[in-house]
Amino acid sequence: MDADITLTVDGQVRQVRVDTRTTLLDALRDRMGVTAPKKGCDHGQCGSCTVLLNGRRATTCLALAVAHDGAEITTAEGLADGDGAPHPVQRAFLDHDAFQCGYCTPGQICSAVGMLDEARAGHPSAVTTDLVGPVELTDAEIRERMSGNLCRCGAYVNIVAAIQEAAR
Amino acid sequence: MNPFEYRRATDVAEAVAAVAERPDAVFLGGGTNLVDHLKLGVTRPGRLVDITRLPLDRVEPLPGGGVRVGANVRNSDLAAEPVIRSRYPVLAQALLSGASGQLRNLATTGGNLLQRTRCVYFQDITTPCNKRMPGSGCAALDGYTRHHAVLGASPQCVAVHPSDMAVALAALDAVVRTHGPAGQRAIPLVEFHRLPGAQPERDTVLDHGELITAVDLPAVPATRRSAYRKVRDRASYAFALVSVAAEVELRDGEISQARIAFGGLAHKPWRAQRAEQVLRGAPATAATFQRAAEAELVGAQPLADNAFKVPLARNTLVSVLTELTELTGATEPTQEDTP
Ligand SMILES: Cc1cc2nc3c(=O)[nH]c(=O)nc-3n(C[C@H](O)[C@H](O)[C@H](O)COP(=O)(O)OP(=O)(O)OC[C@H]3O[C@@H](n4cnc5c(N)ncnc54)[C@H](O)[C@@H]3O)c2cc1C
Ligand code: SF4
Ligand code: FES
Ligand code: FES
């Protein structure tokens, strides 16, 4: 069964017809040619499909495209500013060599951008001792908050360093 | 995945009718469990009724000091809510220990309660499973049972309920509000999930077409301390082997009130009433905590691979209670104890 939906992807308003079974990830990659979000596990377990959905980080492999009709999506590709200069989180990933093969990277970057907003808003994590106090982004905090993004190359040490820098 | 019709509900009654009228219709929340099951073939509905645009996304104060959590409130938003962080830390901690940041932004309160077991045989449609296909058998019984139940299981099913949030809600005496074809009801959380018995296909007491609209949290006195502790195979982003939600109040070094629930041990969040009985009125000492844990776990029936869960549950409970009562010290109650 088909449905016509509208998505704003990296600033562009786009209409697309999808089967109701299509996930947001497949709609982006296969129907719209937006390949920044990657398919790793397709079951919500690896984070490589993470985008900013209406400004918040979200996996796209377990979201149905039709259910997100009207949504605004920013992928890692859309994070750069108008002149094409990389986003501070992207810059920090480059400076800290925070990847090897790069497959998990677009998801890591979107997740980091969303996570930094959450921390700035004072949202606690599972390792925060004072649930009502301000958040101090220690390495332990960053690891916990980024635990939904797996990296098969094990670039974690540099990912944490890159996010530390972007947080400053 | 079988084809299905997609409907977007605009009001509660319409959503209920759209599911009630078709035996193969289901509600769609954030989709983080349902869509996984569609892909795996665990369930094959013919109609999905999307309830995420219903106005059930608010956290509101209730008269008398409680809090009403709309069914569509996202797990991340609930954990970040100031009143939850300050008055219901056990719930904030349970939510934050579940899944990942990007999943919690999608997952809803209603969907979290109704997420299904992570039993690998339930998720693998090539193996027998009484929960997925009633009468087909239980592959776990002769399989790998590290993650399965030690309390309240049946010969038909030894699965555990995976939700962290629900364990905290069980300790909090939360109430699930529903709207179904037969009207509205309020179901105490501890009676909401079922033990498997001879009908493991039924996780909860909900009827077909019955929509969760909200979860009500009773008021908590300011002197109550609560915490959630989750033990798992890795530091983060894994389901619980064992978890404990605990709330205590102290009066002159004695435990005046205790509410305890275990996760990872049973087919439902396990409210530990035997442990609570031992705790109430007893001195807040390590010996009391040991006795309480043992009173609850004496009936445990471990399977081939999960005997470790019994001492793990005991030690986790003792540790959480020690931490909570050291924190509270001998604080005098300063406020009326509202139920
Ligand atoms: C990789 C991964 C790791 C996870 N780790 C954890 C963890 O550590 N701890 C944990 O607790 N959870 C964990 N989860 C599970 C997650 O919390 C659930 O998938 C989520 O809470 C389900 O919410 P949802 O809104 O996405 O539900 P959906 O998938 O949309 O729905 C789930 C079920 O609930 C029904 N439903 C939804 N809303 C309602 C309603 N209002 N009324 C009636 N029926 C309704 C649906 O019909 C469906 O049967 C994990 C999930 C993934 C994918
Ligand atoms: S334990 Fe329950 S869910 Fe797992 S295979 Fe047996 S019947 Fe199915
Ligand atoms: S592809 Fe979505 S989480 Fe792995
Ligand atoms: S850089 Fe290769 S998976 Fe992360």
Outline of the structure:
Chain A: Pathway: Alkaloid degradation; nicotine degradation. The complex is a heterodimer of chains A (168) and B (339). Chain A is α+β, with helices and mostly antiparallel strands.
Topology, please?
The complex is a heterodimer of chains A (168) and B (339).
Chain A: E1 2-9, E2 12-19, H1 24-31, E3 51-53, E4 56-58, E5 72-74, H2 88-95, H3 105-120, H4 139-145, H5 156-167
Parallel strand pairs in A: 1-5
Antiparallel strand pairs in A: 1-2, 3-4, 3-5
Helix pairs in contact in A: 2-5
Chain B: E1 5-8, H1 12-20, E2 25-28, H2 34-40, E3 47-50, E4 59-61, E5 67-70, H3 75-80, H4 82-87, H5 89-96, H6 101-104, H7 109-114, H8 120-123, H9 165-171, E6 175-180, E7 183-188, H10 189-192, E8 211-217, E9 225-231, E10 242-251, E11 254-263, E12 270-271, H11 273-279, H12 286-297, H13 309-328
Parallel strand pairs in B: 1-3, 2-3
Antiparallel strand pairs in B: 4-5, 5-8, 6-7, 6-8, 9-10, 10-11, 11-12
Helix pairs in contact in B: 5-9, 11-12, 12-13
Residues 26-34, 36, 51, 71, 75, 98-99, 103, 106-108, 110-112, 114-115, 162-165, 211-212, 239 of chain B line the site of flavin-adenine dinucleotide.
Question: Please, could you describe this protein's structure?
Answer:
Chain B: InterPro entries: CO_DH_flav_C, CO_DH_flav_C_dom_sf, Diverse_Substr_Oxidored, FAD-bd_PCMH, FAD-bd_PCMH-like_sf, FAD-bd_PCMH_sub1, FAD-bd_PCMH_sub2, Mopterin_DH_FAD-bd. Chain B: Pfam families: CO_deh_flav_C, FAD_binding_5. Chain B: GO terms for molecular function: FAD binding; oxidoreductase activity. Chain B: Keywords: Oxidoreductase. Chain A folds into two domains: about 1-80, Beta-grasp domain (Ubiquitin-like (UB roll)), CATH 3.10.20.30; about 90-165, [2Fe-2S]-binding domain (DNA polymerase, domain 1, Orthogonal Bundle), CATH 1.10.150.120. Chain A has five helices and five strands; from the N terminus they run ββαβββαααα. Chain A has helices at about 25-30, 90-95, 105-120, 140-145, 155-165, and strands at about 1-10, 10-20, 50-55, 55-60, 70-75. Chain A has a five-stranded mixed sheet with strand order 2-1-5-3-4, with helices on both faces. In chain A, a hairpin with a 2-residue loop joins strand 3 and strand 4 (about 55-60). By secondary structure, chain B is α+β, with helices and mostly antiparallel strands. Chain B has a domain at about 225-330: CO dehydrogenase flavoprotein, C-terminal domain (Enolase-like, domain 1, 2-Layer Sandwich), CATH 3.30.390.50. Chain B contains 13 helices and twelve strands. Chain B has a five-stranded antiparallel sheet. In chain B, helix 5 runs antiparallel to helix 9, helix 11 (about 275-280) runs antiparallel to helix 12 (about 285-295) and helix 12 (about 285-295) packs antiparallel against helix 13 (about 310-330). Residues about 330-339 of chain B have low confidence and may be disordered. The structure holds flavin-adenine dinucleotide (FAD), iron/sulfur cluster and FE2/S2 (inorganic) cluster (2 copies). The site of iron/sulfur cluster has 14 residues of chain B, from helix 8.
